[in-house]
Amino acid sequence: MIFLVAEIGVNWNGDLDLAKEMMLSAKKTGCNAVKFQAFNESIIKDHPENSRLINTSISKKNIEQIDELSKSVGIEWFCTPMYPEAVDLLVPFVKRFKIRETDGRPILKNETTPLFERVLKTNKEIIISSNSSPRTSKYFKNSQIKWLYCVPKYPCELNELDFTDIRDFHGFSNHSPNIIAPVTAAILGAKIIEIHITSDKSKNFFDNNVSFDYSELEELVKLIHLSEKIKK
After folding, report:
1. Helix, strand, coil percent content, the chain, rounded in steps of 5
2. CB-CB contact of 31 with 192 (8 Å)
3. Which of 57, 98, 192, 230 lies 20 to 30 A from 82 at CA?
4. Range of the domain at 99
5. Is residue 10 part of a domain?
6. Is 232 within the bounds of a domain?
7. From CA 196, how far away is CA 37, in angstroms rounded?
8. What's the angle, vertex CA 153, arms to CA 47 and CA 70, rounded to 5?
9. What pLDDT was estimated at residue 232?
10. Residue 157 falls within a domain, yes or no?
């Protein structure tokens, strides 16, 4: 079975009612989990809307409410920590962690970072996005780690995707606005598919240019489940 992750990310705008609505949509369409992000003010200090963006981060102020919402909806949630202290905050609440492509680059070079060391010590599953094959990394066969192919561009055009080495990865993290991208990854054998979702493409949510709305999500999940019937 393909593990489907709906990235709520920063598109909930710090609105708990909207977060619940997005969780419900993800659950209804057949996603297995939703994902958020945890960052601090220093990470987003240069963003033109940092005062609005910071409200979308998982923090001490909202983490218990997010956890309660996920339990009420009946869907798993996890998170991308972007600074080491966020890991300690998340540990009691999540089963797994996501490392974004930028923070995964040292790992591909067999280097390490305080963030990665902190996550590794939790002994929980780590999902890492990478733009290149992780085969040369000493962590390639580490059973704690799952690798996702990802082109770190918002949005990513279809001709910028290269699935040649997709079997070196456990799955695919999508930044293409075209549903054919994650569907193709599923057909080629990806076991984890991560896609961004939004409640309304007409509004100015931060990641709308790489997100699928609820109707697109429903169609995407149907196609992915159909692809699972194909022997690979």
Report:
1. 40, 20, 45
2. no
3. 192
4. 3-227
5. yes
6. no
7. 12
8. 75
9. 74
10. yes
